[in-house]
Design a protein that fits this description.
Length: 178
């Protein structure tokens, strides 16, 4: 592994699902579940779930750009959630489950904007993914970290996280870690 690493912050529904799927990719060093994009300092899971904080459930991906490109992370991310559904993903409803890309720099903003524009032209429905600069990422409580790995038989994980993991393994075979 190199000393190079970058971060990407992405939200597309429950962070457990996004975390589990993106951890499959080679070059991904860590995925941390958390909250971003809102107006409340140091929010709790309960507060975020209430919808009153403005935050989305997101993951922060630390990755090695010499192994996986930011554009490849975006491609996998957009494949495992529905960017045309406003404020919901599957059974999860509310602004905390919105599709959002929070960028760390101008290069990420340009790459994400171009990707979203191309995807919007390709799909029949409008892409509603928000694109904002990351202001602050708040790490979620410890019980939410690596949730799928710790609870693979949990009903929510079986029905929602596992299919996303399987989709990444199948559709992004060349990018999956061995």
């Amino acid at each position: 592994m190199t000393d190079q690493h970058e971060a990407a912050t992405l939200g597309g529904g429950c962070f457990w699902c996004i975390e589990a799927a993106l951890e499959e990719l080679a070059g991904v060093e860590s995925v941390t579940s958390g909250y971003a994009g809102g107006h409340t300092s140091d929010p709790s899971y309960r507060a975020v779930c209430s919808g009153s904080t403005g935050h989305a459930e997101v993951v922060q991906v630390e990755y090695d750009p010499t192994v996986i490109a930011y554009a490849d992370l975006l491609e996998a991310f957009f494949a495992i959630h529905y960017p045309t559904q406003r404020n919901r993903q599957g059974p999860d409803v509310g602004s905390q489950y919105r599709s959002i890309v929070l960028t760390h720099d101008e290069a990420q903003r340009e790459t994400a904007a171009a990707y979203i524009e191309a995807l919007d032209a390709e799909l029949d429905d409008d892409v509603v993914t928000e694109l904002e600069p990351l202001e602050t990422f708040y790490r979620a409580e410890e019980k939410h970290q690596d949730y799928f790995a710790k609870h693979p038989d949990d009903a929510y994980c079986t029905f929602h996280a596992q299919p996303k993991v399987e989709k990444v393994r199948a559709e992004f075979e060349s990018l999956v870690a061995e």
